[in-house]
Amino acid sequence: MPAEPPQSARQSTSQPTQQPTQQITVSKVAIASDHAGVAEKARLVEWMKGQGIEVLDLGPATDDRVDYPDFAAKVAGAVTGGTVETGVLVCGTGIGMAIAANKLPGIRAANVTSPEFAALAREHNDANIVAVSARFSEPQTNERILATFFSTDFGGGRHAGRVQKITDLEAGPVGHDEETASGATDR
Q1: Of 10, 96, 153, 160, whose CB is crowded by the most CB atoms within 10 A?
Q2: CATH code of the domain made up of 22-171
Q3: Quick check: 88 and 118 in contact, CB under 8 A?
């Protein structure tokens, strides 16, 4: 039997919270959801505007049933097209939308459930889209996730080569070579 989300996570009726303590460096964000995430998306749009972020809301406008890959693709296109700096996806879990967005070249979408994961997704993986859960995360947790995602820079260094390998996978599967067989030496 699937776990029931907390009552407050199922109802996105709470108001946005105070300013984050992190320095948000993102100025323009695209956001979309599926039908399960419409209410939380609307709440997060208002929260982002309160942080001084320009928000491109790519839908949907109602909670009528929609197919999440369509809306994940809209945000991914806005990110890869340079219309926005980063994207936010909201669905019941965040999982399906992250999977769909990751099918587009140049996208590194992370399904994030905590501010710590948001920081690591940016710092280690240079994630350019964050997917959050409307059903299983508290609304204030989603705000903290976005604040952290929007204020964390990519760490570069040892992570840059790994991110390049992710990008290289977009061209198709890579062979099994000596380096991958022996494992990385710069853990």
Answers
A1: 96
A2: 3.40.1400.10
A3: no
Quick one: which of 90, 102, 95 has its CA closest to 141?
90
Sort strands 129-133 and 109-111 into parallel, antiparallel or unpaired. parallel
pTM for this prediction: 0.83
Q: Which 3 state secondary structure label does DSSP give 46?
A: helix
CB atoms within 10 A of CB 58: 22
d(CA 48, CA 63): 21
DSSP track, 109-130: EEE--SHHHHHHHHHHH---EE
Rg value, the chain, Cα: 17
Residue 177 pLDDT class (50, 70, 90 cuts):
low
Q: What is the domain partition of the chain in residue ranges?
A: 22-171
**Residues annotated catalytic, as ranges:** 91, 124
29 backbone dihedrals φ, ψ, rounded to 5°: -130, 140
**Residue 111, beta-bridge partner list:** 131
Rounded to whole angstroms, how far apart are CA atoms 147 and 119? 10
